[in-house]
Amino acid sequence: MNLIDLNQVRSQKYLIVFKALLIILALTPIFYASFRLLGIANGQVTFIASDYRFLMQPIIFIIQGACTFLFCIYWTLQLSTGFKSMKKIPSIKTAVLVFTLGFTSGVDNIWLLLTTTVPELESELLFNIKIIHSLTLIGCIIYGYFNFFIGKHIAYENWLFRSFSLALITGSYLLLNTMFHVLSLEFPNYTNALIFVIAWVTHLMITEWLIEKRQVKRMKKSQFGSVLMSQ
User: Of 40, 53, 90, 175, which sits 20 to 30 A from 29 (CA to CA)?
Assistant: First the structure.
């Protein structure tokens, strides 16, 4: 096995681990909501804002969670070796379906936030951050698919990769929230908002780094192809 083969095997192993982590993040909100529901049924947990929203509008809550999960799983499976591009550009029908999933996820989340406000269970700062997050998700999805329909597939991939990263933030937020509580790291009135911002900034940095890395590789490949053509 030569060096190139070894690098390809290593990349495939990293990709499997990376996809597994993404799937865990996508599944985290579902597992978390299930455990919360069991706790509520047994009277063993204190109510939080998401519990109240589920009990008030269960159908919207479930639709939002399902759309987010399917949207994230689709993009996880689309990632190719190196975490830098999709396997192929989707058909119009697939693009419309995935757009519907992502857009519905963002709109439903805003609906839940605005129609079931619980100021006694959720700080105003966290509420506003969640609204901005959902609007940003919707904006990235719309702009990404605008680029798809005008034929700018690279820009489409970049903006949908950003929206995919935004959709996964809830999973990171819940995992970090659990870690903060286990370690007793509490900041009165600001803990949850701080955790959400940390998750958002982390996702943003990783996403932009991967997009930049992908663009650099594409430029090198283009330059290499130009050199071969000139010889």
Answer: 90
